[in-house]
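User: quick one, fold this
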Amino acid sequence: MKFRNLIFFIALIFSFQACKTTEVYSDFDPNAKFDSYSNFMVLEYLKSTPIKENTKKWLHSAISTELTNRGYNENKSPDLLIKVMVKSKTKETTALTRNDNFYWGSDYYQYGWGINTGVNRVKYDTQTEGTIIIDIIDREKKELIWQGRASGAAKGSKKLSEKSVNKIIAKVFSTYPLAPTK
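Assistant:
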């Protein structure tokens, strides 16, 4: 009975590990007074992976919403400059499944005893991993005061949607030192 529980627990751990979620990291300047700023501007996406226009709009909208909720206003002469960078890479994996069992018949020989020692299946998997980096810069001092980063893998052939962008940006800004006022 205990062995069965151990097997179940190990399988549970592996199933949670297989469900990779978005990982969020952030860092900020402890000397920065985040409540003293009032305006921001989102800069163009420099040195990024090429981004579709819809995704740019979604990112801009999500970032603007998060900063507006914290009491900042979007302005052409800002206190804060917001720099966004998106990077992605494709990762390919190969998994081999071997069958080293005795058999009765096979694909090649329909009858008789034998040993199957070859590779039974080869599985190829392609996964896209992406990272969004948001830098908030004090315009006067020209210093980075906060950086938030989200990275994770796209599950299957799932495409990026406005809802998922909003969710990712909200998760990144949950680590921002100034809490939302709205």
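User: anything notable?
Assistant: Residues 13 and 151 are 21 Å apart (CA to CA).
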